[in-house]
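Q: I'm building a small set of examples for a reading group on sequence design. Run inverse folding on the following structure and report the sequence directly after it, with nothing in between.
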């Protein structure tokens, strides 16, 4: 490699993410988010390379627009590549004169990526540790049998539990109830990854994205349950059928809508997940006693 460039490795959801970048690029990483995930996993489920490049010219997406979720980013399709255009502001409000913060190029298997950005002063930071990195993992985890979910997650003495639901349902509140209890490790408060093993069973993982910095860990645990949350005046938990569980989780999964073949694999992963891991509906008040209620079904 060019001596002016360095590689830094991250372990995210059991995958090895290699970021290649100039050695003099301050601001590329938000250390409080990414530092807990530094290092190579012992047996990576996939190896993904992200080549960071600085662009002197204004950024313009290449290819045909194929997916527009309405905010933050859009996906374009070129000849043999995908191009995601990310245009939201950073903490300073800086987005650049043309409004585009970065372009993320990917091959069809999402394991060879190029992230193009323009450095913005003052206080510029890159999007690898924010939207671009999350989008890359959202796609690259699918061929490995995984999904990225809008969920918080804990390891309860070796039993992984995910809490999912619409915004405001209580994912972070549940994390607070479990935090500090003997043998409990909090993994993430907003973005959890899951992966089913070909040998059976599934694992849950923390990721760097979503929620508050410092709340996520590079930690995994065998999944014992997924809990869908609803606020209610009384506490009650019931197991969902695989069909009902799949419908509920599909609404909370970050799916690769832009790619039909990748979507087919994602739905296959989801079907395997709900037939492997019990999914429960928890209707509850925001009170610590629900911890014992959840533990009663593990």
């Amino acid at each position: 490699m060019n001596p002016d460039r360095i590689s830094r490795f991250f372990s995210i959801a059991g995958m090895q993410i290699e970021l290649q970048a100039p050695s003099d690029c301050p601001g590329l990483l938000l250390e409080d988010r990414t530092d807990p995930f530094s290092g190579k996993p012992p047996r990576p489920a996939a190896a993904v390379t992200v080549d960071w490049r600085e662009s002197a010219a204004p950024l313009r997406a290449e290819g045909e627009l194929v997916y527009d979720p309405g905010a933050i980013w859009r996906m374009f399709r070129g000849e043999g590549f995908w191009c995601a255009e990310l245009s939201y502001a950073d903490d300073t409000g800086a987005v650049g004169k043309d409004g585009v913060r970065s372009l993320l190029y990917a091959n069809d298997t999402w394991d060879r990526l190029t992230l193009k950005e323009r450095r913005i002063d003052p206080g510029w930071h890159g999007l690898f540790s924010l939207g671009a990195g999350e989008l890359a993992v959202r796609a690259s985890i699918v061929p490995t049998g995984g999904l990225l979910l809008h969920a918080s997650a804990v390891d309860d003495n070796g039993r992984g539990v995910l809490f999912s639901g619409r915004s405001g349902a209580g994912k972070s509140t549940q994390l607070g109830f479990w935090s500090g209890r003997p043998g409990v490790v909090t993994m993430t408060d907003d973005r959890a990854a899951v992966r089913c093993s070909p040998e059976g069973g599934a694992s849950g993982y923390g990721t760097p994205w979503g929620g508050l910095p410092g709340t996520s860990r590079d930690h995994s645990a065998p999944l014992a349950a997924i809990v869908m949350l609803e606020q209610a005046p009384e506490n009650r938990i019931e197991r969902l059928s695989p069909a009902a569980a799949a419908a509920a989780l599909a609404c909370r999964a970050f799916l690769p809508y832009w790619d039909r073949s990748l979507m087919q694999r994602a739905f296959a992963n989801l079907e395997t997940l709900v037939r492997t891991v019990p999914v429960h509906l928890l209707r509850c008040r925001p009170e610590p006693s629900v911890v014992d209620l959840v533990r009663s079904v593990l």
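The CA atoms of residues 10 and 38 lie 4 Å apart.
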